[in-house]
Amino acid sequence: MKSEMTNVDVCCVVNELQNLVNGRLDKAFLIDNEQNRELILKIHVPEGGSRELVISIGKYKYITLTNYEREKPKLPPSFAMLLRKYLKNAKLIKIEQVNFDRIVIFHFETRDGIYKLVAELFGDGNIIFLNSEDIIIAPLRVERWSSRNIVPKEEYKFPPQKPLNPYNLEFSIAYEVFKDYFLNNKGVECVRLISRVFGIGGLYAEEICERAGIDKKKKDLSEEEIKKLFEASKNLFNEIFNNRKPQIVLKDNEYFDVVPIDLKKYEGLEKKYYNSFLEAVDDYFAKFLTKVEVKKEKSKIEREIERQENILKRQLETLKKYKEDAEKNQIKGDLIYANYQIVEELLNAIRQAREKMDWARIKKIIRENKEHPILGLIENINENVGEIVIRLKSEVDDNVIEERVSLDIRKNAFENAESYYEKAKKLRGKIEGIENAIELTKKKIEELKKKGEKELKEKENLQMKKKVRKERKWYEKFKWTVINGFLVIAGKDAITNEIIIKKYTDKDDIVFHADIQGAPFTVIKTGGKEVDEETLEEVAKFSVSHSRAWKLGYGAIDTYWVKPEQISKTAESGEYLKRGAFVIRGERHYYRNTPLELGIGVIEYDGDIKITTAPPKTLQKSFIKWVLLKPSNKEKGKVVKELKEIFKNYGIDDEDILRVLPPGGCEIIKK
């Protein structure tokens, strides 16, 4: 099974990742697994929502966009915190593969300049954070080689380049380089030369040989054969660049490889095709990582079963001891009764002797009378505790039972026997308890085995939990609401402002703009209907609440509306307009000192329950459930958590809430 990307895979992934360009970094997470580390960058893309970019190094080296949920650490490691510090809200402006190598650079633009995040997917893999001058701020792993060092404060250097870059094969000099490489390395198998000249893995080098019809182990090729290999290389890379068929290759019903095109090597094997290579890579490595998780889970279950089996072993040993002790105490009590007369005489004799002499004298008499029928039964005297140890025997069913029995000289024979019976009784009570505990432990072991089998099977079948990406309507790419039946949309930034005006504004619509720099265009989609004054007032509040005034904590600002034909991209003579900026000509219909009043709630619209924001009057009139908000410095994550709990019965997730909240922070003021 493939456990790391080839440079061909990296090329295809980088091509598809271009959709992230112009997105902004929200958060960075670092997950340390048993054999690999995953850096997850949460990026918000204009019109595309939030996506999670995964860069994995270690045993499993890959880059993809993931739809699978991962358990993120509550306390982010220092590298993730460093990225959050430098790249919070940074704009991703470029993603590139370096020299067709397994190196990808992510360029981020911030107020402090350009930063780069370099992912190296060879060796053990590494992720290196650079400043605009390519000086290393921090690597995920410090590494040192003879040709370069990956350590803080040193200049980042790329590994040595390969002779040919597959992107340049159309140039005539490319064939000359290719040919000279073969002519200068005679005696080396052609598959190895192809791998070295392009820096590609054996799989694609073999594919080129097969497409050219040349034995991969052949040496000393003719110019005609070299030409065939070159043409086959061009054909392969053209297919990789322009005619991909992303797929997972299965072998014996198991994921075996993930490739971007059909390969001759895999003809006859089952394949699972995808619309994008990123999706195929995500599914492939999610399944692969699941096997690791299953193995870890199996070890965890096995350890718990082993722990319970050790408990059971100790319980069985205790049960055996309790039974043996109970039986011995019962026998000792029985032996006292069987020899009742002798035991009673002996105890009386000892007590009487003790009244007349000390223990030393008594012990001497006993030693001198070993042959005495009664005194000869005494084996030991423990004067400190007032006990004598005697040997008693009895014949039961032709079996002679003999035991050493301790007797308390302060008690008579009956009391000593009862003492042993009481001990036996207590032990039998403990036996019952330990037998119940044993049954419970056995049951627990069986349950663990069944539960383990079930959970492992489910994990194997389901892989990691896959997020269901919601289908968004076109207006959900923007800030939006519904006021008195009119759909209202507003931009989020300069890019979406321009998209709204150019693509989604019709001639009968009404366009609001708060009188503050950087405010979004807010458009009432009239559908040709007349808009009443109440609606205009409510939209005015919506427009100012979603402007920068909210973030600055203003209580009220002016806003105005115009018709679409008053908005132009043509600047006055000698002036220049930035992206997203427009010129407004003609009369402006002002709403002075419009209060920033906004709430969030759920509304039934377009055949579904959706969450969005609206002014209070609209919330009361049209929304199913809602709360009021006010500007605040409260951590947005905590607010989202509170709102998610409030609207938990409506299938609302974090992203649904984050997409519609006003700029800056907020807090709930009325539920």
Automatic annotation (TrEMBL):
One GO BP annotation is:
rescue of stalled ribosome
What is the protein name for this chain?
Archaeal Rqc2 homolog aRqcH
Family the entry assigns: Belongs to the NEMF family.
Q: Which Gene3D superfamilies match?
A: 1.10.8.50, ibrinogen binding protein from staphylococcus aureus domain
RNA-binding as a keyword of this entry, yes or no, is yes
Q: How does it assemble?
A: Associates with stalled 50S ribosomal subunits.
Q: Write one Pfam family the protein is assigned to.
A: NFACT-R_1
Q: What does this protein do?
A: Probably part of the ribosome quality control system (RQC). May mediate the addition of alanine residues (Ala tailing) to incompletely synthesized nascent chains from stalled ribosomes, leading to their degradation.
Q: Which domain of life is it from?
A: Archaea
Q: Is Protein biosynthesis there in the keyword field?
A: yes
Give GO terms: molecular function aspect only: ribosomal large subunit binding; rRNA binding; tRNA binding
Task: List the coiled-coil residues.
Answer: 291-363, 417-465
| Keywords from the UniProt entry | Coiled coil, Protein biosynthesis, RNA-binding, rRNA-binding, tRNA-binding
Give the HAMAP family listed for this entry.
Answer: RqcH_A
A GO CC annotation recorded here is: RQC complex
Domain NFACT RNA-binding, first and last residues per copy: 482-586
